[in-house]
Amino acid sequence: DYDKAAQSLLNKLIRSNLVNTTNQVEVLQRDPNSPLYSVKSFEELRLKPQLLQGVYAMGFNRPSKIQENALPMMLAEPPQNLIAQSQSGTGKTAAFVLAMLSHVDPNNKFPQALCVSPTYELALQTGKVIEQMGKHYSEVKLVYAIRGNKRKGIFSLLLSPVVIGTPGTMLDWCLKFKFIDPKKIKVFVLDEADVMIATQGHQDQSIRIQRMLPKQCQMLLFSATFEETVWNFAQRIVPDPNIIKLKREEETLDTIKQYYVLCNSKEEKFMALCNIYGAITIAQAMIFCHTRKTAGWLAGELSREGHQVALLSGEMQVEQRAAVIDRFRDGKEKVLVTTNVCARGIDVEQVSVVINFDLPVDRDGNPDNETYLHRIGRTGRFGKRGLAINMVDSRFSMNVLNKIQEHFNKKIEKLDTDDLDEIEKIAG
Ligand SMILES: Nc1ncnc2c1ncn2[C@@H]1O[C@H](COP(=O)(O)OP(=O)(O)OP(=O)(O)O)[C@@H](O)[C@H]1O
């Protein structure tokens, strides 16, 4: 019958996206048009031997373009500031982590490098990268400036050269609790820098931290997206920055194929989702909703239909959030229903499908191009293939989709479950 046929073809489409080999990364790393391309090896980037060991222990063979370009700037003496843009999943984290670890002096038992991330999950994830990368450089300790971590060993925290955290807690540690002496900070990293600047609360906190830092402190700003006004603001707050910026047409990744499905209502979107549930659970999927309420509703309805899904949204307790993301990372949960809280930075290699149950719009209902790029960038990590499926249910959302399409000048194909031939063609 029809549903079965449609489902099997969608299965095929998704499966065809899952064919990945390390070979593919190697091919991309030798293609000058790829953001993974490099001419240099990690050895040539003059990293400390302990860090080079860490890099290889993580299974990295060659640097990506952003790593190759940014590292020499960041490691230069005297230290230089940098505002850098590179596509999602191209290794920005490793780049600034290596810079942080290179600049701290393990003999000095106090914080020297700070990194702020917009969310709790992302701070934890980046912390893990710091730990892995610094595995063979064990003198360098790390501490997490995140909610609920204050009482845990204030002593170790005063000794740790590297601190990763969220802006509110980081500011408290600098100002209120004085765990960190800002005057001794040598490197300050803003990860997802554009959102740190564009979100008022984050901006206030980040700028207040920045004002306490010494003049010669190195500032590093990284993101996959920088809206024009945000870019200009970044240039105003960072003295004499080096700049790595993408052209608009370079921002999207060709390895992520983008589609949309046309529905008539929220309920129809839900039904369409049920139809492809089998296919998307071949690997892992993230489903984005506009509000916590919709996310809660959707997760509930999917569960009621017998589909196992996990829910992560901002109002949950941080411990709960950590548990959910761990289960998803471990593959114990195949489908994660979430909000923009997970749109940025989350790096789970197995995510092959991203579904926008609601298209991203800002407070005024305008298309949010940056969030769109970050959301679909949860798939297609470091050369992997990915699939983004947008659910359109009104003239309004069709308009949003069209504007996103125009903005990136990149076609979003219609995926018509009624048109089996079409799917067959795409699936190849
Ligand atoms: N040189 C490398 N070789 C192989 N894998 C790498 C290399 N650099 C990074 N990776 C891997 O690629 C994945 C994506 O990297 P990372 O999370 O740093 O991307 P990002 O640019 O920060 O993405 P986002 O914009 O989504 O935050 C990670 O799993 C990381 O381990």
From TrEMBL:
It is an enzyme of class 3 (hydrolase). It catalyses: ATP + H2O = ADP + phosphate + H(+). GO terms for cellular component: cytoplasm; nucleus. Its EC number is 3.6.4.13. A motif (Q motif) lies at residues 40-68. PANTHER family: ATP-DEPENDENT RNA HELICASE DBP3 (PTHR47958). Coiled coil: none annotated. Residues 255-423 form the Helicase C-terminal domain. This is RNA helicase. One of its GO terms (molecular function) is hydrolase activity. Keywords: ATP-binding, Cytoplasm, Helicase, Hydrolase, Nucleotide-binding, Nucleus, RNA-binding. The lineage of its organism: Eukaryota, Metazoa, Chordata, Craniata, Vertebrata. PROSITE patterns: HELICASE_ATP_BIND_1, HELICASE_CTER, Q_MOTIF. The gene is LOC115207355. Residues 40-68 form the DEAD-box RNA helicase Q domain. It is found in: Cytoplasm; Nucleus. Its main location: cytoplasm. Residues 73-244 form the Helicase ATP-binding domain. It comes from Salmo trutta. SMART domains: DEXDc, HELICc.
